[in-house]
Specification:
Helices cover 52% and strands 14% of the residues. By secondary structure, it is an alpha/beta fold. The protein folds into 2 domains: 125 residues, Rossmann fold (3-Layer(aba) Sandwich), CATH 3.40.50; 83 residues, P-loop containing nucleotide triphosphate hydrolases (Rossmann fold, 3-Layer(aba) Sandwich), CATH 3.40.50.300. The strands form 2 sheets. It has a 5-stranded parallel β-sheet with strand order 2-6-1-7-8, sandwiched between helices. Strands 3-4-5 form a 3-stranded antiparallel β-sheet, with helices on one face. The longest helix has 17 residues.
Length: 228
């Protein structure tokens, strides 16, 4: 069996919000027995702490301090933030409304990308985010770009956050997703964009198992053989 470098065991997954990338990333990690990191949780954790500490979304220095002082670790159960497992509090409406603005700060992104790379340097990893293939792990041999229609993404938001979306309506959910994607795609530092060598996977009309099968076929085609 060929010897694989650390970077050759990295899988980078990107795509817009609610496209199914986190669901797919977890499934790939379970299938391959790789650690899984949803980097969005890191930006959400910084956002959540900033809200609790009264640091505004335009206070660069304060946000950078929060990012630098937060302890992120990756264990068998996933990401921990200051020793506590990342949980549903990172997806509260106030975090949703603020995370794009917080994550647009280059100073915050630089800190978190450095930590992400340090975690990836420990070995094999499946990393999900919005700039992994272009910024976080640009040398990863396997890059996937996950997409879905606005309507499908809104339906997933309805499934994952039924009470919030029910209050707003599906049209409002679509508008919020589109606004966030537009904001993230046009930010100056590490915008949301597909890496030139990222493999496109459209999840519309496919079950999670079907999407996983497509992704695994693409991964094994890149590796030629299981590197483990």
């Amino acid at each position: 069996m060929r010897v694989m470098s650390k970077s050759s065991l990295q899988i980078a997954i990107d795509g817009p919000a609610a496209s199914g990338k986190s669901t797919l990333g977890r499934a790939i990690a379970e299938e391959l027995r790789f650690p899984f990191l949803d980097t969005g949780q890191m930006y959400r954790a910084v956002t959540r702490k900033s809200l609790l500490e009264g640091v505004k979304a335009d206070e660069t220095e304060g946000l950078q301090h929060i990012a630098e002082s937060t302890r992120f670790e990756l264990g068998p159960a996933g990401l921990t933030v200051d020793g506590t497992a990342a949980g549903p509090e990172l997806h509260l409406p106030d975090v949703d409304a603020t995370v794009s603005e917080v994550s647009a700060h280059p100073e915050v992104r630089q800190v978190l990308v450095r930590i992400q790379r340090e975690l990836a340097d420990e070995g094999r990893i499946v990393m999900v985010g919005r700039d992994i293939g272009t910024t976080g792990l640009p040398d990863a041999p396997v890059k996937l770009w996950i997409t879905a229609s606005d309507e499908e993404r809104a339906r997933r938001r309805m499934r994952d956050q039924p009470e919030e979306v029910a209050r707003q309506g599906q049209a409002a959910a679509v508008a919020r997703l589109s606004t966030r994607d537009r904001y993230d795609s046009t930010r100056a530092h590490s915008p949301l964009q597909r890496a030139p060598d990222a493999i496109l996977i459209d999840t519309d009309g496919r079950s999670p198992r079907q999407v996983l099968d497509v992704a695994l076929a693409e991964i094994y085609a890149v590796w030629s053989e299981r590197p483990f």
